[in-house]
Amino acid sequence: MSRPLQHVEALVIGASAGGVEALLTLLPALPATFPAAVFVVLHLPRERPSLLVDIFRPKCALPVAEAQDKEPVRPGHIYFAPPDYHLLVEKGGEMSLSDDELVNFSRPSIDVLFESAADCYRQRLLGVLLTGGNEDGAAGLQAIRRAGGATLVQDPGEAQAAYMPEAAIKLGPVDQILPLAQIAALLRGLGASRISGG
Q: Which of 46, 121, 165, 182 could potentially form a cystine with 178 if both were Cys, beta carbons 3.0 to 4.6 Å apart?
């Protein structure tokens, strides 16, 4: 990793096709000591309620919730974007939801989350882009890099849908391209290093 991670205050994760399976590897790996707020955009059918909180809450050491408009961000919590709303992070330390136009055919859009979080957290942000079938998230990862944050992309060779990670790699440099198990180990270590003073 070419950028220091010990001061990460927020983790943003984007995924589409195959994303639930990928997140079932990553999110349960986060220890209860994980220091950062975690924001997740997963492309979902816009017309149905999300079951993500029900799926992930029993499996995660961190509290899991669907993001609420104007809710204050709390470290060590996992927030899922609700269906049919963009999730943004505001500089005042709260989340906001928007029903603005689709971005990359998606609402919520990974790019919208990544770009707002980059603006808010800058070098204290880590962005992770996983499996998916469109280009959403590629531009957002570059926004994170420009702001001084760190970027990880799932190895397209093991992704259920390689198009999204491939699009991110094609658009510009990323800090690391790793299989899911190594991303999970890196994130687990982030929580452990904070506890040990690392």
A: 182
